[in-house]
Design a protein that fits this description.
Shape: globular
Oligomer: single chain
Strand content: 15-25%
Low-confidence stretches: none
Distance between the termini: 48 Å
Number of strands: 26
Length: about 675
């Protein structure tokens, strides 16, 4: 049975008062009266300029703090990084004494899509990704937080450990904050660890509590000789979720040291812990205006007013970012680490350029990231992706054939691309069966919604280009851009093509009903312009791994008309299956796709009317992203029809690429962790 939390009286004069952030005026910072407050006010400048010396790290003992992991709760790429980076790093550098340990919440509950549970008798934990592990309880800590109103509550947090694939995991358990049972008012788009839960806890509050729990655990590890966990000498913060950690490690430690509540040895140990913050997508920052006061009071307790009045951001040109704790009067969890982390790294080099170069990408932090870039405390390292997990493997294709019952998909690699053409023919047959046999469709893909699927009779499938897009149907992914480009393609390029070689487009995924409607309208419009072409557009809504996998096995081209893509893993999956990516020149797509060699990229890329990528002449010729994407598609189709040998060479190049962590990114992270560069 969970222990009922203990309510503690509040000393209100130490806390931020009601309306402190509603004046629409920047905070007034007090003149520092002693060395602790002076250091506090200058911390952001010291950190961003890189003036804090990097400690000597011979054997790395890092904690990677992450809200997601690919084994126990994964919603996207940051969960994969949290598991794959430590796994490959420990395997590669473990002999040198290096180790990365993962610290993550112990989620419990059922969202309908994600389900986790913990058996308190057997200590077996079942994650949401089909993995389970037996945990060992090592200690219990108490974390003070304000759940609502004005009362502090002491929450007990259980600390457990386990090991998976050579990586130690530390789980933090508290059912109030880490329950994922949805509240009846939970927005439909919020799932997994991002739900507004049954206890009224939203994602920002959940991860603010997570940050504070990690901080309290670190204090206990450094102070308590009975704590069996080993002291880390570096912290890796995986995105905004743990963005309150650096302010706690810096500001709160200095505040407690000033008051004599923390001995110098412990304070110096915590203050000297370098924090490396990994930015995945800066559009997600952890905003919570209504709860700004409560969250800051919860994090810093009786030091809240003192900390806020000394939490000065580095001087920059953005009047909205004066404090390192709030942005334009709102609590912003990413702000703490953008200002105070020792190093900030993002998931590709080009995305780092975009964040520090354009407000459309860097948002309120563009100026600070530019300062950091100039002083070498901000950089980009392309994410890894273990190739062995994404190549066409015998076990996956055997499962695929069993799932679809009578299919005959086959294994291939870059030296047997003729088999990929066989898979294309097999996939076209599958589309025909799904379009004509409703009973079969309901049996294998009951949750997918199809729109006017047509049976195709194609004599030479190898002569027919197949395009696909199977990402989330979200604005970021640019399905509307692809749809408008296909319309241009149909009107301007495909009119003269013989019907037998017209391309096939398969587009869909889980997500927005509005985007699905846009794709349905595309099919209808094309059907009017060219009825034969209209039959070759297959749009669907919903997601099933096996269907997406079959599409990729068949596809010649994988469309990625993304409005932004910090790194992108989909293009790596496409490479591995010989589907040439067709992408916007944004983010990590620029770093990973070599245009005309292993895929295609647009000549230019625009955000609104700002040309972010490409030359002036191309920008004048291709005035927007739709035209740029259509132009790229024409180039790709021309090569497919007129120079098939080059397309085959490009597919071989694509399949030969390897973005596994130990192929380059690990060495960069090794230097970053050990030397800060």
């Amino acid at each position: 049975m969970p222990v009922k939390p203990k309510v503690v009286d509040v000393v209100s004069e130490k806390l931020l008062e009601n309306g402190f952030n509603k004046s629409k005026k920047p905070p007034v910072f007090l003149a520092p009266k002693d060395k602790y407050l002076h250091k506090m006010q200058n911390l952001a400048e010291m950190q961003c300029f890189g003036r804090t010396s990097w400690p000597e790290i011979i054997s790395l003992r890092a904690w990677m703090i992450s809200a997601e992991t690919s084994y126990f709760m994964k919603m996207g790429g940051l969960g994969m990084v949290a598991s794959e980076l430590p796994e490959t790093y420990n395997h590669e550098f473990g002999a040198k004494g290096d180790e990365i340990v993962v610290v993550t919440p112990l989620y419990v509950g059922d969202t309908g899509k994600k389900k986790t549970s913990f058996n308190h008798q057997t200590f077996e934990y079942y994650g949401s990704e089909g993995h389970s592990a037996f945990l060992k309880k090592v200690t219990t800590i108490e974390v003070v937080f304000i759940p609502e109103g004005e009362k502090f509550v002491n929450y007990r947090v259980g600390v457990y450990t386990t090991e998976v694939n050579g990586v130690k995991y530390i789980f933090l358990e508290n059912e109030h904050f880490f329950s994922i049972n949805p509240h009846r008012e939970n927005p439909s788009a919020q799932d997994g660890c991002y739900v507004y839960n049954e206890n009224g806890v939203n994602e920002v509050e959940r991860f603010a509590f997570f940050s504070k729990a990690v901080f309290v655990l670190l204090k206990d590890v450094f102070q308590n000789k009975q704590n069996p966990l080993q002291k880390p000498n570096l912290l890796i913060a995986n995105d905004w979720h743990c963005g309150a950690l650096a302010p706690l490690l810096k500001y709160e430690v200095l505040a407690q040291q000033q008051k004599g509540l923390l001995d110098d040895k412990t304070a110096d140990g915590l203050l000297s812990l370098p924090v490396v913050h990994i930015v995945h997508h800066l559009g997600y920052q952890g905003w919570d205006y209504p709860n700004t006061r409560r969250l800051l009071n919860s994090l810093f307790a009786y030091d809240a007013k003192l900390v806020y009045r000394n939490a000065k951001a580095i001087k920059n040109f953005n009047p909205r970012v004066v404090s390192s704790l709030i942005v334009h009067d709102s609590y912003n969890q990413a702000a703490g680490h953008i200002n105070l982390a020792d190093r900030v790294v993002t998931v590709s080099r080009n995305y780092a350029d975009e964040l520090s170069g354009f407000v459309e990408f860097g948002w309120d932090f563009r100026d600070i990231l530019r300062i950091r870039r100039d002083h070498r405390t901000f950089s980009g390292i392309v994410n890894g992706y273990e190739k062995s997990k994404i190549i066409p493997s015998a076990s996956k294709i055997e499962h695929l054939n069993a799932f679809f019952k009578n299919t005959d998909f086959a294994v291939y690699d870059e030296n047997s691309l003729h088999v990929k053409n066989k898979n294309k023919a097999e996939f076209i047959k599958l589309l025909g069966k799904l379009s004509t046999d409703e009973k079969y469709k309901q049996e294998v893909l009951p949750l997918l919604e199809f729109y006017k699927f047509d049976k195709l009779d194609i004599e030479n499938p190898d002569k027919v280009p197949v395009f696909c897009a199977t990402s989330r149907m979200a604005e970021q992914k640019g399905y509307d851009i692809a749809a408008d480009a296909i319309l241009i393609l149909t009107q301007a390029y495909l009119k003269q093509k013989e019907s037998g070689v017209l391309p096939i487009f398969v587009m869909g995924g889980a997500g927005s009903a509005e985007i699905f409607d846009y794709l349905k309208k595309l099919k209808d419009k094309v059907s009017v312009l060219n009825p034969e072409m209209g039959k070759r557009i297959f749009v669907f809504r919903g997601y099933k791994d096996e269907f997406a996998y079959a599409i990729q096995l068949a596809a010649d081209f994988y469309m990625m008309p993304c409005r932004f893509e910090p790194c992108g893993l989909t293009q790596m999956e496409a490479f591995a299956k010989g589907a040439l990516p067709m992408a916007m020149s944004t983010g990590g797509l620029v770093d990973t796709i070599i245009n005309g060699v292993d895929g295609f990229r647009t000549e230019v890329f625009f955000v609104d009317k700002t040309r972010v990528y490409g030359g002036n002449l191309a920008g004048k010729r291709l005035t927007n992203n739709v035209k740029a994407f259509a132009d790229m598609m024409v180039n790709a189709l021309t090569l497919f029809y007129d120079n098939p040998d080059l397309i085959s060479t490009m597919k071989k190049n694509a399949m030969a690429k390897d973005f596994s962590w130990n192929k380059g990114a690990l060495d960069q992270y090794y230097r970053l962790f050990h030397q800060g560069v």
